[in-house]
Specification:
alpha/beta, Arc Repressor Mutant, subunit A, D-Maltodextrin-Binding Protein, domain 2, about 20% strand, Transcriptional regulator, LysR family, transcription cis-regulatory region binding, DNA-binding
Amino acid sequence: MKIRHLRIFKVVCEEESITKAAEKLFMTQPAVSNAISELEDHLKVCLFDRISRRIYLNETGKLFLKKVITLLELYEDLEKNVKELEENATIRIGSSITIANFILPKSIVEFETMYKNTPTKVIVGNAGKIEEMLEHNEIDLALIEGVIYNEELIKIPFSSYPLVMICSPKHKFAQQGPIDINQVIQERLLLREKGSAIRDVFDSALLLHNISVNPNWTSTNSQALIQAVKQNLGISVLPKILVAEEIASGQLVEIKVKDFELVNMNHIVFHKDKFQTTSFKALVEIIKNK
C-alpha cells in the first residue's frame, strides 16, 4: 500500500465513479480500477460494493476513508513544511575551550541573526572529548584545535593562534633572554590535561626534541593555571590570546625559548557522511570567515 493508492481511493470516493476519478486524475480507467484492486488485496477487505456495474462505498470503506483523509492531510502538511522542519532542527556544536572563549560566541550571534528559527546547542570541552562526541554522533559540528587523526572526519582549517610559555615577574626566567627548552623542563610545569589541544601541541613539540615531561600541576581550567603562575608556582603554556592582557600589564612574562615555536591550528570538523542542511552550511561559512 502506497500513498498513491490512498490518493486514488480518496478521489474515487469523492467522484463515486471509477470513470470520473480516472478523468480527474488524468489516468486510464483500468489503471484506477487496478489501483483499487491492489489496495483491497493488500488490506484483505472490500471497500466498495459493486452492484449493477456501479461502485458504492461500503461501511468498511467509509471508516477507512475517514482515516485516509486524516493521513493524507498529515502527509501533505509534512510535504509542504519539510523545509520548515529542517530550519527548526537544532544544530549541536562541540567546541574546545579556547575557540569557545574567543571565536564561537560572535559566530553564533551572526548565525542566529541570519537563521532565527534554527536553535543551536553548544557543548564545551577539551579537544579529545569533543572529537569523541563527534565520532558517536552526539554532536553535528566540532570546532577543535590541534591535530585530528580520524580519517572519517572532514577537517577545515580556519584560523590559528600562538601558544606562549609564561612565568611570574618574580621568576628567574623573567629577566633572561632566550631560554633553552632543556632549561625550561627543569622547572615546575603547570600544564593543561592530556587530551586538550594545548597540551597535545606542547607534547608534540617536546617529542621533536626527544623530551617528555611529568607536570607538577595538571588542570582542565586555564584560569587556575594563570593564577598559579602569578603566584610564581611554576611555568605554564597557554594561548597568547588568553594571557595577552596580563602580559601587557606586567602581571605575567612571556618566556622566549630558543627554536621552540608553538602554534595551534583551529579546525571546523564534521563526519564525512553527515547530511549538511542549508543552515549547517551557513554556520560553517560564518566560522570560516572569522
